[in-house]
Amino acid sequence: MAKIKNINGTSQNKCSCGSWLQHWKNYSNQSVTYCSEKSCTDKKLLGAHVQKANSTDEKWYIVPLCAEHNKSVGVIEIVDSVKLVSANKKETCEK
Known about the structure:
Number of helices: 2
Number of strands: 5
Structural class: alpha+beta
Shape: globular
Radius of gyration: 12 Å
Order of helices and strands: EHEEHEE
Strand order of the largest sheet: 4-1-2-3-5
């Protein structure tokens, strides 16, 4: 399982995709039904700003999470099949 942590206080960040969840869909070429947290079955998803936990990689990524997991402050284990998409707009939707 991949481990991530939320970057809280990013709700004001916007991108040209319309939503961060749409941004994730556009650049992951994936679709998901459930929250990416390994045991969550919530279907109401948001595009969450996260960083890899326990990593020297300090880049920001987007993954689909439910509202509850999007607000959590600890380390979250997500399913390995979910791609982390760069939140850097200069690398994606503003390229």
